[in-house]
Amino acid sequence: MKKDQLSKSQIDALMFVSERLKALRIAKGYTNYEYLAYEIGMSRSQLGTYENGANITIATLVKILDHLGVTLEEFFKSQQQ
């Protein structure tokens, strides 16, 4: 689904995910998303699009988080506060 077909709350949720992914990547020492993409076997461009707010599946999110050593609960924890 394209961003222009999403509601504001859906876009806000995608932006939360993208910003959180980027922040966690940097916190784990990956200064460049390309290094992380290489390590998890994902195309650099795809990971880059996720960090820019593209729609991401739960399976892909879990794959990235597993590599970073972060649970889904930890990932979404900052949104609950």
Proportion of β residues?
A: under 5%
Structural class: mainly alpha
Helix content: 55-70%
Tell me the overall shape: globular
**CATH homologous superfamily descriptor:** lambda repressor-like DNA-binding domains
Terminal CA distance? 29 Å
Overall CATH class? Mainly Alpha
State the CATH topology: 434 Repressor (Amino-terminal Domain)
Strand tally = 0
- Poorly predicted runs of 5 or more residues: none
**CATH architecture title:** Orthogonal Bundle
One letter per element, helices H and strands E, the order comes to HHHHH
Radius of gyration: 12 Å
The overall pLDDT, averaged over residues, is 91
For the sheet with most strands, the description reads:
none
Oligomer: single chain
Count of all domains: 1
Number of helices: 5
